[in-house]
Amino acid sequence: MPKLNLNRARNSSPFSDVESGEKLQSALEPKYNKPNKKICLSAGLSDKHLQRRWQVLESMTEKELLLDSFTQQHHQAYSNNIEHFIGTVNVPVGLAGPLRVNGLFANDDFLVPLATTEAALVASYNRGAKLITASGGVSTLLINEGVSRTPVFAFQSLSESAQFVSWVVTQYDMFRTVAESTTNHGKLKDINVNIEGNHVYLVFEYLTGDASGQNMVTIATQNVFVYILEHSPIAPVDAFLDGNLSGDKKANAYTLRSVRGKKVSADVTIPAELVEQHLNTTPAAMVKFGKMNTVGGLLSGSIGINAHYANALTALYIACGQDAACVAESAIGITRMDVTPNGDLYASVTLPNIMVGTVGGGTGLPTQKACLDILGLHGNGKAKALAEVAAALCLAGEISIVGAFCAGHFSRAHHKLARK
């Protein structure tokens, strides 16, 4: 039996620098003295509040780095988007494209702004976009849409759960009226019931127009939630506005077959000679890579199979004023590649959780609006097109990164571009 080297284990432990039990206890125990740093109590964004915060911060960093002249000039524009405001962070923005999209809602050659600090990312998406465009463009199809909120109710027994549900199914029209009274754009699309013993989960699914819609559906469902508590013939023991069935900002398997946000599928067929010319590999090699990585994804417990949707979506979301935390759910889906009978490359992606909007949220902020303007997708009537562009962008990235691995260029590209 191999011997455990206690010295090695001790030296590699995070506790190796702790000299004694007393020191460890002193470091970790609660401390109740007043904080030595504090900010202005108000979360507001007035000039007075901003000045008071910087009276604390100026000893820590240069004010102009976060509160530059442009930010000072436009700072009131952020009043509905941030609390305890102190300035802005400049993230580099690059362009990928042109990316030709042949969709129901997006039908154009798009220059796509991507905000990132990761070297090689924009170059990779640009390469994939150019290859797709040279192949006639990517076909995109918005399949479904809906944003959900899922209140949960606890009862004394399964019998009470059943009685509650028997009342709920008679109230759908009333629930719709109550929910839609809170919004000019949201529509209650469907209500599903899930019984788990003495717990009942109600799934309220909405259409949210051109807004991403998380706040919209929360406010609408809150009104229905209050109505239920006031009118239900069976009083719940406990009730909460969301029971974590919606998948909000979490990777989840349910939406692979359903939808949260906007569900889009996209595909392209790329001639073998263009694969070899742009990627220095073959369709057969890319398909083999994909099959082996599908098995690897299954072994790791991956939800869906893709190479790096998160890279495209995070960079696009930050640039265009989307809620970047939604990448946790948006970056799931399925990438698939096949060799056609002619020997060409067929590639597709399906993303069921694209959470984007072209009005509301951060879309009206100065630099974020500028990025949406570059796409031509700011304002009413553009959200479905933005979702199709997002899926097309993900496909461009999948093709490019798989090509890089197959050609042995992945590490070389990062070394070249990140270590100039």
From TrEMBL:
Its EC number is 1.1.1.34. It is an enzyme of class 1 (oxidoreductase). InterPro entries: HMG_CoA_Rdtase (IPR002202), HMG_CoA_Rdtase_cat_sf (IPR023074), HMG_CoA_Rdtase_CS (IPR023076), HMG_CoA_Rdtase_eu_arc (IPR004554), HMG_CoA_Rdtase_NAD(P)-bd_sf (IPR009023), HMG_CoA_Rdtase_sub-bd_dom_sf (IPR009029). Residues 1-21 are annotated as: Disordered. One of its GO terms (molecular function) is hydroxymethylglutaryl-CoA reductase (NADPH) activity. Gene3D superfamilies: 3-hydroxy-3-methylglutaryl-coenzyme A Reductase, Chain A, domain 2, Hydroxymethylglutaryl-CoA reductase, class I/II, NAD/NADP-binding domain. Keywords: NADP, Oxidoreductase. GO terms for biological process: coenzyme A metabolic process; isoprenoid biosynthetic process. Belongs to the HMG-CoA reductase family. This is hydroxymethylglutaryl-CoA reductase (NADPH).
